[in-house]
Design a protein that fits this description.
This is DUF3592 domain-containing protein. The protein is of the alpha+beta class. The protein has helices spanning 13-25, 42-77, 149-172; strands at 79-91, 94-102, 108-113, 127-133, 136-142.
């Protein structure tokens, strides 16, 4: 009897209505909510990541603001002179040159210039224009031809980290 099908019994119309009413009146049990995290420390880990991203974002934004402040000071009261490149070091961020120049009051100073412009040839012995702060000639020194993209990239990185932390806060809470 392998090929024989079992017939389904048809309900009479009144039995069918009774069955539907019973299904409708049956109390529904509340669904159990599954835990969102598999371990009790997962929420703590997420909050630690959010706090770390917030702190890193604030540090990047503060560094960018300090770099912008230094740039503004040099734009307002900086003096431009020509110096000689003494040493050059290359990193992923670009070239860092150490330049020796003479200030307006006759002192010979050696300072680091981090944001060298694209037009400046960065090699030892080459001449380079620098803008320096007369109050602190070794502290704030930059290439007047530099584009200043570093401070903007640091600032954008900080804002992105802060936005990520804000998104993470909305997801965890």
């Amino acid at each position: 009897m392998a090929g024989k099908r079992k017939r389904r019994r048809r309900l009479r119309p009144d039995d069918q209505a009774t069955r539907l009413n019973r299904l409708k009146t049956r109390p529904t049990l509340p669904r159990r909510r599954r835990a969102r995290h598999s371990s009790p420390y997962a929420n703590t880990k997420e909050w630690a990541g959010i706090v770390l991203a917030t702190v890193a974002g604030l540090v990047f934004v503060c560094i960018a603001l300090q770099m912008h402040y230094d740039h503004r000071i040099l734009q307002q009261r900086g003096l431009v002179t020509t110096g000689e490149i003494v040493s050059v070091s290359y990193t992923k961020g670009g070239a860092f040159a150490e330049v020796r120049f003479t200030t307006a009051d006759g002192r010979t100073v050696q300072a680091d210039v981090s944001n060298t412009g694209d037009a400046t040839e960065v090699k030892v012995g080459a001449r380079m224009e620098v803008r320096y702060d007369p109050k602190d000639p070794t502290g704030r020194v930059e290439d007047p031809n530099g584009d200043g993209s570093t401070r903007w990239m640091v600032g954008i990185g900080g804002v992105v980290l802060l936005a990520g932390a804000a998104y993470g806060t909305s997801r965890v809470a």
